[in-house]
């Protein structure tokens, strides 16, 4: 598998936010989201065997929560899925952050899928979610929408309603986008959408969703890598 980095920090998003977590960041992505904060994953990376990755994860004990992220980790599904099976057999709790553009049916059900459905504000990546992946969802899973503006919010609200998402997934996350060039300040002023607006819209509609802030961008400088 080609990795960009492997490190321990606290989880920044989802219902696991704040929990110590090992991040395995895989190289490569087939999308180009307008607000992407991980463009350094698009090229490069170093090859590691599954044994080597497993050893690196074990060296970060006693942490037993592991997230596979990227880039798009499902581009390396052929090696990733066997690695997931290995780690689940050793009682690790696993998460995967994915766009849902690749098939997810083969991901073990015990893995918490965090699926980032791309809204119009994602630019060329918008509407790339593979609808058949809705059938692969369990209550372990969380559906995320990164919201840049009112158009994105309306898209997310309609998608949630049309597909009765709250009945399929355990959580629905609405996350305000950050600007492409945030200042080093650890403040909400770096967001492309004021989270107060998003909260107002959610409350007005009674949306069955959770506001999700990327807490690592408030703990550390927003552009900092490896945290
Ligand atoms: S899917 Fe993720 S890594 Fe790929 S372009 Fe979008 S935000 Fe960036």
Quick rundown:
The protein has 227 residues and is α/β, with parallel strands linked by helices. Helices cover 24% and strands 21% of the residues. It has a single domain (2-219), classed as TIM Barrel, CATH 3.20.20.
CATH architecture: Alpha-Beta Barrel
Domains, number: 1
**Largest β-sheet summary:** 9 strands, mixed
Compressed to H and E, one letter per element, the order equals: EEEHEHEEEHHEHEH
Number of helices: 6
**Which regions have little confidence, pLDDT < 50, spanning 5+ residues?**
none
Q: What is the total tally of β strands?
A: 9
Query: What small molecules does the structure contain?
Result: iron/sulfur cluster
Could you please say which CATH topology applies here?
TIM Barrel
CATH class: Alpha Beta
What's the helical proportion of residues? 10-25%
Estimate the mean pLDDT confidence.
Answer: 96
The CATH homology group name: Aldolase class I
- Spatial ordering of strands, largest sheet: 3-1-2-4-5-6-7-8-9
Strand content: 15-25%
- Give the structural class: alpha/beta
- The N- to C-terminal Cα distance equals 21 Å
- The best one-word shape is globular
Compute the gyration radius: what is it?
17 Å
């Amino acid at each position: 598998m080609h990795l960009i980095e492997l490190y321990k920090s606290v989880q920044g998003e989802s219902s696991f936010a704040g929990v110590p977590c090992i991040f395995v960041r895989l190289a490569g992505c087939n999308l180009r989201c307008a607000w992407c904060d991980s463009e350094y994953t698009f090229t490069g990376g170093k090859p590691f065997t599954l044994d080597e990755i497993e050893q690196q994860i074990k060296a970060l004990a006693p942490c037993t929560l592991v997230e596979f992220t990227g880039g798009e980790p499902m581009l390396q599904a052929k090696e990733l899925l066997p690695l997931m099976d290995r780690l689940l057999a050793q009682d690790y709790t696993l998460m995967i952050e994915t766009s849902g553009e690749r098939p997810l049916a083969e991901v073990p059900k015990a893995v918490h899928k965090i699926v980032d459905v791309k809204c119009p504000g994602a630019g060329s990546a918008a509407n790339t979610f593979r609808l058949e992946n809705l059938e692969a969802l369990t209550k372990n899973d969380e559906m995320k929408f990164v919201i840049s503006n009112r158009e994105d919010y309306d898209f997310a609200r309609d998608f949630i309603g049309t597909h009765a998402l709250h009945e399929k997934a355990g959580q629905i996350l609405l996350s305000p986008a950050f600007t492409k060039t945030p200042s080093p300040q650890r403040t909400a002023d770096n967001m492309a959408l004021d989270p107060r607006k998003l909260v107002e819209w959610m409350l007005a509609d009674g949306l069955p969703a959770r506001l999700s802030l990327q807490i690592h961008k408030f703990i550390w400088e927003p552009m900092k890598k490896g945290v």
